[in-house]
Amino acid sequence: MINLAGRDILHGWGRFAFTGIGLGLLIGVTLSMAGIYRGMIDDGRVLLDNSGADLWVVQQDTLGPYAEPSSLRDDVYRSLRGLPGVAAAANATYLTMQVRQADRDVRVMLVGFEPGQPGEPAYLTDGRRLANGHYEAIADERTGFRLGERVRIRRHEFEIVGLTRRMVSASGDPMLLVSLKDAQEAQFLKDNDAIVNERARVAANPAFNRPAVPGLLEAVQAAQASNHFVNAVLLRLAPEADASAVAAGIRRWKRLQAYTRAEMEEILIAKLIETSSRQIAMFLVILSVVSAAIVAFIIYTMTMNKLREIAVLKLIGARSRTIAGMILQQALGLGLIGFVVGRIAAGLWAPIFPKFVLLLPADALRGFVAVMAICAVASTIAIRAALRVDPAAAIGG
Length: 397
Known about the structure:
Helix content: 40-55%
Order of helices and strands: HHEEHEEEEEEEHHHEEHEHHHHHH
Distance between the termini: 22 Å
Structural class: alpha+beta
Number of strands: 12
Shape: elongated
């Protein structure tokens, strides 16, 4: 029996190949959307890994420091360091902001950490660690900064002394890491004009000028000019310590919120990127429907162009199952070409995406199965049309 699908593909191989490439680009976009979702999850996990913490202590009743703002006094870590099971405690600040580099703005997460403590980058790809107490920074490679460059943060310029990789926020913004004191100043210290205005407002308030409260005005003004706050305290636990038990004790006795690694991962993945994951899921559904419609239209058009050949096959005794198999074979061949092209395209353009795209082999396998299933379902329209062909059409012309 003549393989009509194979002969038709060979006869119009150019049209079939270009159709497969077009479908492949659409499949590549679908795989990239799945890769973006995987990348968002990986960004959240990398953020937690790079912090070097087992527990995150933040302001009570907040989901800080990554999903919500959190503010703590920077002396809280002292009371936490002495708790049973705590091996190290360190302050940290996190602030997403625009920094100025030459003639361009770069969006980064500004991180303040204490050298040698949780929060410090685990490794550098180039340069050195912070040596001076002020005005030095370590940058993630995706910021585009180079060693020796100077970056303006608020009122001061910082020199890039080290480079690292995959230090990103939960939203994929690359990190710029500076000393804790510099980060506190950038985030919490008000500018001079704001301090002067606040002092004038306080001085004009009669409540602060009563003789019965000496020194209250000066105390309020000093507090307004201070920057003794942090966003979180990162705790590293002893190997034998139970993270859940330590966190429960902090919540009960310190009146602070403490999150374990599992709880923080739940916040980042289930809450912070929930809306984005739903959007990506909707795009995947839409792209799948569009792909099915394209395949159905292409296979139906190809089938309609060879109705006479199908009628001849019926006339010489070809069974309906044989004809349906030929059309299905053609649809699956188109899907195979499209998937191969799409996977190659997704791998080529993934590195140039602004966000991290993680293409997993398991996702590619599931995508292949989905493409084959979509092609098989889409071919049913053409199969039904072919099976309704009257064998007499081969004679009637």
